[in-house]
Amino acid sequence: MSASPRILIVGAAGQVGTELQRSFAGSGEIAAVDRESVDLAAAEQVRELVRRVKPTIILNAAAYTGVDRAEKEPDLAMAVNAGAPGILAEEALALDALLVHYSTDYVFDGSKRGAWTEEDAPAPLSSMERVSWPAKRLYAGQAGGILFSEPVGYTGRMALIFC
């Protein structure tokens, strides 16, 4: 019988993180963190968290979501939305853990008729959106040039949540 997974939920106090905690309750050992317990702009805090928890699954629902503020704080938005997910990808590889990253569909400009795919070229319109695309490129570097694919993880793009 295999051991229960150790699941790290990053962004646990947000809408998606709260739902992930509810959905994964009873599925394994849950370590849920939010911005009060880890500063995602501080690379060493992110590394230390993953190394301490040693998860088999990382669910990253954290994001810098202040669209207007991101225009004034692009470095902070980039650190949280691109740097931290890149570190999570590095650490997931080191632990042979699965990483699932929840992201926005705002990396696309909305001009396409029909559904967007991961193969579509991004066309971000604001600082907030521009920082989401580099996160995906960071995963590519961590996954040996494969855009965020198994065994590192998956990306889910979402539009407006809980409207």
How would you characterize this protein structure?
The protein is of the alpha/beta class and 163 residues long. It has one domain: 3-Layer(aba) Sandwich (Rossmann fold). Helices cover 39% and strands 17% of the residues. The protein has helices at 15-24, 43-53, 67-72, 74-95, 127-130, 132-142, and strands at residues 6-10, 29-33, 57-60, 98-104, 153-158. Strands 2-1-3-4-5 form a 5-stranded parallel beta sheet, sandwiched between helices. Strand 1, helix 1 and strand 2 (29-33) form a beta-alpha-beta unit. Helix 2 runs parallel beside helix 4. The longest helix has 22 residues, at 74-95. The N and C termini lie far apart (41 Å). Mean pLDDT is 78; it is low at 139-163.
- Total separate domains: 1
Taking pLDDT < 50 over at least 5 consecutive residues as the criterion, the unreliable ranges are 139-163
Q: Can you identify the CATH superfamily?
A: NAD(P)-binding Rossmann-like Domain
| Oligomeric organization of the protein chains | single chain
The strand line-up of the biggest sheet is 2-1-3-4-5
CATH topology: Rossmann fold
Short description:
With 163 residues, the protein is an alpha/beta fold.
Topology summary:
Blueprint: E1 6-10, H1 15-24, E2 29-33, H2 43-53, E3 57-60, H3 67-72, H4 74-95, E4 98-104, H5 127-130, H6 132-142, E5 153-158
Parallel strand pairs: 1-2, 1-3, 3-4, 4-5
Helix pairs in contact: 2-4, 4-6
